[in-house]
Protein backbone atom coordinates (compact mmCIF):
# COMPACT_ATOMS: atom_id res chain seq x y z
CA UNK A 1 0.00 0.00 0.00
CA UNK A 2 1.50 3.31 -1.12
CA UNK A 3 0.40 6.50 0.62
CA UNK A 4 1.52 10.12 0.20
CA UNK A 5 1.12 12.43 3.19
CA UNK A 6 0.66 15.86 1.62
CA UNK A 7 0.42 19.47 2.75
CA UNK A 8 0.33 22.83 1.01
CA UNK A 9 0.84 26.47 1.93
CA UNK A 10 -1.09 29.10 0.01
CA UNK A 11 -1.55 32.84 -0.50
CA UNK A 12 -4.96 32.68 1.18
CA UNK A 13 -8.05 30.62 1.84
CA UNK A 14 -9.96 30.75 -1.44
CA UNK A 15 -8.56 28.91 -4.43
CA UNK A 16 -11.47 29.82 -6.69
CA UNK A 17 -11.02 33.51 -5.88
CA UNK A 18 -7.45 33.61 -7.13
CA UNK A 19 -5.37 32.36 -4.21
CA UNK A 20 -2.49 30.10 -5.24
CA UNK A 21 -0.18 27.43 -3.82
CA UNK A 22 3.23 28.67 -2.62
CA UNK A 23 4.63 25.44 -1.13
CA UNK A 24 4.01 21.70 -1.47
CA UNK A 25 5.39 19.00 0.81
CA UNK A 26 4.93 15.25 0.30
CA UNK A 27 6.15 12.27 2.34
CA UNK A 28 5.89 8.70 1.04
CA UNK A 29 4.70 5.73 3.11
CA UNK A 30 4.72 2.17 1.82
CA UNK A 31 2.95 -0.44 3.92
CA UNK A 32 2.70 2.21 6.68
CA UNK A 33 6.44 2.76 6.81
CA UNK A 34 8.26 5.99 5.77
CA UNK A 35 10.46 5.26 2.77
CA UNK A 36 12.55 8.44 2.99
CA UNK A 37 11.21 9.67 -0.36
CA UNK A 38 9.96 13.25 -0.26
CA UNK A 39 8.85 15.91 -2.68
CA UNK A 40 9.23 19.51 -1.54
CA UNK A 41 8.84 22.59 -3.72
CA UNK A 42 8.45 26.31 -3.11
CA UNK A 43 6.41 27.98 -5.84
CA UNK A 44 6.08 31.42 -7.36
CA UNK A 45 2.31 32.08 -7.11
CA UNK A 46 2.44 34.74 -9.81
CA UNK A 47 0.70 37.16 -7.49
CA UNK A 48 1.46 38.98 -4.24
CA UNK A 49 1.40 37.11 -0.96
CA UNK A 50 -0.79 38.99 1.55
CA UNK A 51 0.89 39.91 4.82
CA UNK A 52 -1.66 37.80 6.72
CA UNK A 53 -0.50 34.69 4.85
CA UNK A 54 3.16 35.63 5.33
CA UNK A 55 2.59 35.69 9.10
CA UNK A 56 1.39 32.07 8.92
CA UNK A 57 4.05 30.46 6.71
CA UNK A 58 6.80 33.11 6.57
CA UNK A 59 7.09 33.00 2.75
CA UNK A 60 7.58 36.46 1.26
CA UNK A 61 7.26 37.80 -2.28
CA UNK A 62 11.03 38.28 -2.40
CA UNK A 63 11.74 34.69 -1.38
CA UNK A 64 9.28 33.23 -3.89
CA UNK A 65 10.19 35.49 -6.83
CA UNK A 66 12.78 33.12 -8.36
CA UNK A 67 10.96 29.88 -7.53
CA UNK A 68 9.33 27.69 -10.21
CA UNK A 69 5.67 28.12 -11.04
CA UNK A 70 3.17 25.33 -10.49
CA UNK A 71 3.11 24.44 -14.17
CA UNK A 72 6.86 23.89 -14.00
CA UNK A 73 6.56 21.15 -11.37
CA UNK A 74 3.08 19.80 -12.19
CA UNK A 75 4.30 16.71 -14.05
CA UNK A 76 6.78 15.89 -11.27
CA UNK A 77 4.04 16.20 -8.64
CA UNK A 78 1.60 14.14 -10.70
CA UNK A 79 4.15 11.35 -11.05
CA UNK A 80 4.84 11.39 -7.31
CA UNK A 81 1.20 11.10 -6.21
CA UNK A 82 -0.06 8.94 -9.09
CA UNK A 83 -2.15 5.95 -7.96
CA UNK A 84 -1.27 6.60 -4.30
CA UNK A 85 -3.67 7.21 -1.43
CA UNK A 86 -3.28 10.83 -0.29
CA UNK A 87 -3.31 11.52 3.46
CA UNK A 88 -4.18 15.17 4.13
CA UNK A 89 -5.31 17.17 7.18
CA UNK A 90 -8.46 19.07 6.16
CA UNK A 91 -8.28 17.43 2.75
CA UNK A 92 -11.00 19.51 1.11
CA UNK A 93 -8.84 22.64 1.44
CA UNK A 94 -5.65 21.23 -0.12
CA UNK A 95 -7.50 19.22 -2.76
CA UNK A 96 -9.43 22.27 -3.93
CA UNK A 97 -6.18 24.21 -4.37
CA UNK A 98 -4.50 21.35 -6.21
CA UNK A 99 -7.50 20.78 -8.43
CA UNK A 100 -7.59 24.47 -9.37
CA UNK A 101 -3.84 24.49 -10.06
CA UNK A 102 -4.06 21.39 -12.26
CA UNK A 103 -7.15 22.82 -13.94
CA UNK A 104 -5.27 25.94 -14.97
CA UNK A 105 -2.90 23.76 -17.01
CA UNK A 106 -5.72 22.65 -19.33
CA UNK A 107 -3.96 19.32 -19.68
CA UNK A 108 -6.35 16.36 -20.07
CA UNK A 109 -3.71 14.02 -18.62
CA UNK A 110 -3.62 16.07 -15.40
CA UNK A 111 -7.23 17.14 -15.10
CA UNK A 112 -7.20 17.22 -11.30
CA UNK A 113 -5.33 15.84 -8.32
CA UNK A 114 -8.29 13.61 -7.52
CA UNK A 115 -8.13 12.05 -10.97
CA UNK A 116 -4.43 11.30 -10.52
CA UNK A 117 -4.42 9.75 -7.05
CA UNK A 118 -6.17 6.56 -5.96
CA UNK A 119 -8.02 7.87 -2.90
CA UNK A 120 -7.93 10.59 -0.24
CA UNK A 121 -7.89 10.17 3.55
CA UNK A 122 -8.88 13.25 5.59
CA UNK A 123 -7.12 13.05 8.96
CA UNK A 124 -9.17 15.99 10.29
CA UNK A 125 -12.39 14.02 9.79
CA UNK A 126 -10.71 10.95 11.26
CA UNK A 127 -9.59 12.92 14.32
CA UNK A 128 -13.06 14.42 14.83
CA UNK A 129 -14.54 10.92 14.81
CA UNK A 130 -11.94 9.71 17.32
CA UNK A 131 -11.97 12.86 19.51
CA UNK A 132 -15.41 14.45 19.27
CA UNK A 133 -15.65 17.89 20.85
CA UNK A 134 -11.88 18.36 21.11
CA UNK A 135 -9.47 20.59 19.22
CA UNK A 136 -8.06 18.64 16.31
CA UNK A 137 -5.52 21.00 14.81
CA UNK A 138 -2.18 19.49 13.83
CA UNK A 139 -0.57 20.99 16.95
CA UNK A 140 -3.31 19.54 19.17
CA UNK A 141 -2.88 16.09 17.61
CA UNK A 142 0.90 16.25 17.99
CA UNK A 143 0.34 16.91 21.69
CA UNK A 144 -2.23 14.11 21.98
CA UNK A 145 -0.03 11.49 20.29
CA UNK A 146 3.36 12.57 21.63
CA UNK A 147 4.75 13.86 18.32
CA UNK A 148 7.53 16.44 18.78
CA UNK A 149 6.52 19.63 16.97
CA UNK A 150 8.91 21.98 18.76
CA UNK A 151 10.47 23.05 15.44
CA UNK A 152 7.14 24.29 14.09
CA UNK A 153 7.64 28.05 14.37
CA UNK A 154 5.75 28.63 11.09
CA UNK A 155 3.45 26.45 9.05
CA UNK A 156 5.64 24.67 6.51
CA UNK A 157 4.39 22.16 3.95
CA UNK A 158 7.19 19.61 4.30
CA UNK A 159 7.48 19.88 8.09
CA UNK A 160 3.72 19.63 8.48
CA UNK A 161 3.58 16.61 6.14
CA UNK A 162 6.28 14.90 8.22
CA UNK A 163 4.43 15.66 11.48
CA UNK A 164 1.13 14.52 9.97
CA UNK A 165 2.70 11.24 8.87
CA UNK A 166 3.66 10.53 12.49
CA UNK A 167 0.23 11.59 13.77
CA UNK A 168 -1.56 9.48 11.16
CA UNK A 169 0.46 6.37 12.00
CA UNK A 170 -0.24 6.95 15.72
CA UNK A 171 -3.98 7.45 15.13
CA UNK A 172 -4.23 4.25 13.09
CA UNK A 173 -1.83 2.13 15.13
CA UNK A 174 -4.61 -0.28 16.09
CA UNK A 175 -5.17 -1.02 12.42
CA UNK A 176 -1.45 -1.66 12.03
CA UNK A 177 -1.51 -4.11 14.95
CA UNK A 178 -4.41 -5.97 13.36
CA UNK A 179 -2.58 -6.23 10.06
CA UNK A 180 0.54 -7.48 11.81
CA UNK A 181 -1.46 -10.12 13.66
CA UNK A 182 -3.08 -11.29 10.45
CA UNK A 183 0.24 -11.44 8.67
CA UNK A 184 1.96 -13.49 11.36
CA UNK A 185 1.73 -17.30 11.01
CA UNK A 186 -0.60 -18.87 13.52
CA UNK A 187 1.21 -20.44 16.45
CA UNK A 188 1.06 -24.20 16.63
CA UNK A 189 -0.95 -24.90 19.75
CA UNK A 190 -0.56 -28.67 19.93
CA UNK A 191 0.22 -31.64 17.75
CA UNK A 192 -1.57 -34.95 18.29
CA UNK A 193 -1.20 -38.35 16.75
CA UNK A 194 -4.49 -39.88 15.69
CA UNK A 195 -5.93 -41.94 18.54
CA UNK A 196 -3.68 -40.43 21.21
CA UNK A 197 -4.34 -37.83 23.91
CA UNK A 198 -1.91 -36.02 26.15
CA UNK A 199 -1.82 -36.81 29.84
CA UNK A 200 -3.80 -34.17 31.74
CA UNK A 201 -2.69 -33.12 35.19
CA UNK A 202 -5.67 -32.75 37.58
CA UNK A 203 -5.21 -30.36 40.50
CA UNK A 204 -7.91 -30.81 43.14
CA UNK A 205 -8.95 -28.15 45.63
CA UNK A 206 -7.80 -28.64 49.21
CA UNK A 207 -10.05 -28.65 52.27
CA UNK A 208 -9.27 -25.00 53.10
CA UNK A 209 -10.06 -23.93 49.55
CA UNK A 210 -13.36 -25.84 49.55
CA UNK A 211 -14.34 -24.28 52.87
CA UNK A 212 -13.53 -20.78 51.59
CA UNK A 213 -15.49 -21.43 48.43
CA UNK A 214 -18.50 -22.56 50.48
CA UNK A 215 -18.25 -19.43 52.66
CA UNK A 216 -18.28 -17.10 49.64
CA UNK A 217 -21.30 -18.88 48.17
CA UNK A 218 -23.19 -18.47 51.46
CA UNK A 219 -22.42 -14.75 51.55
CA UNK A 220 -23.63 -14.30 47.97
CA UNK A 221 -26.78 -16.26 48.74
CA UNK A 222 -27.44 -14.14 51.84
CA UNK A 223 -26.93 -10.89 49.91
CA UNK A 224 -29.40 -12.07 47.25
CA UNK A 225 -31.93 -13.12 49.92
CA UNK A 226 -31.88 -16.73 48.87
CA UNK A 227 -32.41 -16.09 45.16
CA UNK A 228 -29.24 -17.77 43.94
CA UNK A 229 -29.89 -20.72 41.65
CA UNK A 230 -27.75 -23.04 43.69
CA UNK A 231 -29.56 -22.31 46.95
CA UNK A 232 -32.27 -24.59 48.25
CA UNK A 233 -34.85 -21.81 48.62
CA UNK A 234 -34.44 -20.79 44.96
CA UNK A 235 -34.85 -24.39 43.88
CA UNK A 236 -38.12 -24.59 45.77
What would you say this structure looks like, in words?
The structure is a single chain. By secondary structure, the chain is α/β, with parallel strands linked by helices. The chain folds into two domains: 2-181, 2-Layer Sandwich (Nucleotidyltransferase, domain 5), CATH 3.30.420.10; 203-236. The chain is built from eleven helices and five strands, in the order βββαααβααβαααααα. A five-stranded mixed β-sheet has the order 3-2-1-4-5. The longest helix is centred in the C-terminal third of the chain and has 17 residues, at 207-223. The N and C termini lie far apart (64 Å). The model is unreliable at 176-194 (pLDDT under 50).
- Tell me the span between the first and last alpha carbons: 64 Å
Instruction: Give the SSE string.
Output: EEEHHHEHHEHHHHHH
Provide the gyration radius in Å. 30 Å
Overall morphology: elongated
Structural class: alpha/beta
Any descriptors?
five-stranded mixed β-sheet; 5 strands; 236 residues; Nucleotidyltransferase, domain 5; elongated; alpha/beta; 11 helices
Q: Mind sketching the topology for me?
A:
Layout: E1 2-10, E2 21-30, E3 33-42, H1 51-57, H2 61-64, H3 70-81, E4 85-88, H4 91-105, H5 113-116, E5 119-122, H6 123-130, H7 138-145, H8 157-171, H9 173-183, H10 207-223, H11 232-235
TL;DR?
The chain has 236 residues and is α/β, with parallel strands linked by helices.
